[in-house]
Amino acid sequence: MIPKIRFEYSWIYDQNWREWIKLYPRWANMKYPSTTKVRNYIKKVEKIWTKHDKKILKEMSKISGLKWGRKNITCYIVGLCRPFSSPLTMPTYKQTDWFIDVLTHELIHNIFFQKGNFKKVERAWDYFEKKYEKESRGTKNHIVLHAIHHQIYIKLFGKKRLERDIRIMKKAKDYKKSWEIVQKEGAENIIKEFRKRLK
Questions:
Q1: Phi and psi of 192, rounded to 5°?
Q2: Are 88 and 73 in contact (CB under 8 A)?
């Protein structure tokens, strides 16, 4: 089963993010997009996402060895926010291909806690927890994720998109480190270690 990602606009949620974003120094002084802009953006990215959605979601399941447990996943789009996986929430980005890449990142997080998967990955998380015990929580949480995303980039979008992600993520210490580990150890090797410990 491949889920349908449903993009939604919640006026209340968006208005809250208009205030919450001020807590993030990086975005605090940015102009917050209007309701109309956000709604129009949703229409725009919906068309782009539907060109890739099945391939991305199928590949994600195939690489990870995990199944999707839900038919529908709601993705809320707001003017500005830090993207996150639950509730799946995305901001507007100038580059729509970057929106697709960040959404893919958040959906990899999402597949880990789909119905039945949390129990299935316990042994794998224990292994990576011990192996990378000296690394930060943020780094540990992204090693397998970035290995999976690496393979999706290579299979569906090419090396340039992968290199852009790695370059942008150099600004975030934890993500930078996890990408370095993936590059050093090899995405295929990390995924192999992950998959052989699935229940």
A1: -60, -45
A2: yes
- With 0-12 / 13-18 / 19 or more C-beta atoms within 10 angstroms meaning exposed / middle / buried, residue 42 is middle
CA–CA gap between residue 34 and residue 151 (Å, rounded): 36
Classify residue 54 as exposed, middle or buried by CB count within 10 Å of its CB (0-12, 13-18, 19+). Answer: exposed
90: phi then psi, degrees, rounded to nearest 5 = -130, 145
- Residues 79-135: tens digit of each pLDDT: 999 999 999 999 999 999 999 999 999 999 999 999 889 899 999 999 999 999 999
Domain ranges for the chain, please list them.
4-112, 121-195
pTM equals 0.96
| Edge-to-edge strand ranges of the sheet holding 72-77 | 4-8, 72-77, 88-90, 84-85
